[in-house]
Write a structure and sequence with these properties.
Bound molecules: glycine
Mean pLDDT: 94
Radius of gyration: 20 Å
Structural class: alpha/beta
Low-confidence stretches: none
Helix content: 40-55%
Largest sheet: 7 strands, mixed
Length: 364
């Protein structure tokens, strides 16, 4: 990792670079002005980045002044193929060719969905990610996963497809609401728990409501994810560590998706990490002290949802459909200790139930 004064921090990923710092000092200008000179640019935005970030980009960079802007409506319910189909039709109308460039400017939904749209259109148009939420900066925009939802299954459709560059500019976070900061904070905590106790030790003392998430802490979190991705790009083994908290978390997120009390992804992952830390302790992997430390830290920032009416059979059924399973067995990542995780840990219906009871016991 290089840190040159006033220059973006650069992290080399598989076949692209992640640049962290002001976009003004990054190679973005060179990319759009020289490499994509005379090529069309398409900027994908949601309502929020349309209002808060787009103007800055198109007024700063002359070569974006004529870019086509595509507004993707917010919300998981719009992260679906039906919306992609409309956008592909628009790209055809704009006469976009394979040599043009898609710029994904937004949170995880934009980078996941923009990745699908760019990767399948004419068998692949190059794209860059400019994540504007903490979650997208530390997780969704790096690692090459793209995805859209199908029925009530999150990211059921998608391809592994890398952007040609990722530009992470923490100044986009200045207008982010606290709930969104926490959404990304949960994934950062996860990076510490699965692979780097030092990162966890720094984060556990941070307050998402007060502390600034700057280049240093963001790049440390991205570095952990990137190292895991480099060792197993297509998630055959090592990358499954990044799924810690997601087996129970995804199921809870999906369960609440059809209700009025939807839960943000990061919040669900935080709750999932509690459940899976409990299971790690139950299976005599994680010590009582470390479970307590995780519990104290997560409960300080994330409220336990009301799980009293949750039907564990339904949760178990959702988990059974998880992409991460093998041989119809529910497999998840558990913790051996803080900073050390174990993949391919089987969990049973009884254990899922026990983890739910544990979560309920934490609700005051
Ligand atoms: N978000 C988990 C991964 O990229 O593998």
């Amino acid at each position: 990792m290089k840190n040159i004064k006033n220059m973006a921090i650069k992290i080399q990923s598989t076949n692209y670079e992640i640049e962290i710092g002001s976009i003004l000092t990054s190679s973005f200008y060179d990319l759009i002005t020289n490499r994509y000179q005379n090529r069309k640019k398409i900027i994908m935005v949601d309502e929020n980045t349309h209002d808060c970030c787009l103007e800055f980009l198109i007024t700063t960079y002359d070569s974006l002044s004529e870019a086509e802007v595509i507004l993707i409506p917010e919300g998981e319910e719009n992260k679906v193929m039906e919306v992609c189909l409309q956008i592909w039709s628009a790209l055809s109308e704009f006469n976009i060719s394979r040599r043009d460039l898609v710029i994904n400017l937004g949170g995880g939904i934009i980078t996941d969905m923009g990745g699908v749209i760019a990767s399948l259109y004419k068998r692949g148009v190059n794209f860059v990610n400019i994540p504007t939420s903490l979650l997208a900066m530390v997780d969704a925009s790096v690692g090459g996963k793209t995805g859209v939802n199908l029925d009530h299954f999150k990211n059921q459709l998608g391809v592994f497809s890398n952007p040609i560059a990722v530009f992470v500019d923490p100044s986009f976070l200045s207008t982010l609401p606290l709930s969104e900061v926490k959404n990304g904070f949960a994934e950062m905590l996860k990076h510490g728990l699965i692979a780097d106790k030092n990162h966890w030790d720094v984060l556990k003392c941070m307050l998402p409501s007060e502390d600034i998430f700057g280049e240093k802490i963001i790049s440390e979190s991205i570095l952990i994810k990137n190292q895991i991705v480099l060792s197993d790009e297509k998630e055959k083994n090592e990358r499954k560590k990044l799924n810690f908290g997601h087996t129970v978390g995804h199921a809870i997120e999906t369960y609440f998706m059809s209700s009025e009390n939807t839960i943000k992804h990061g919040h669900a992952v935080a709750i999932g990490m509690l459940a899976e830390s409990y299971l790690s302790n139950y299976k005599k992997l994680l010590s009582d002290n470390e479970l307590k430390e995780i519990e104290t830290t997560i409960c300080q920032h994330f409220e336990i949802p009301d799980l009293a009416q949750v039907d564990s059979n339904v949760l178990f059924e959702i988990m059974s459909n998880d992409k991460k399973n093998f041989d119809s067995k529910i497999q998840c990542t558990l913790l051996k200790e803080i900073g050390v995780s174990l993949i391919h840990q089987e969990i049973s219906f009884v254990e899922v139930n026990l983890s739910l009871e544990y979560l309920k016991s934490l609700k005051h």
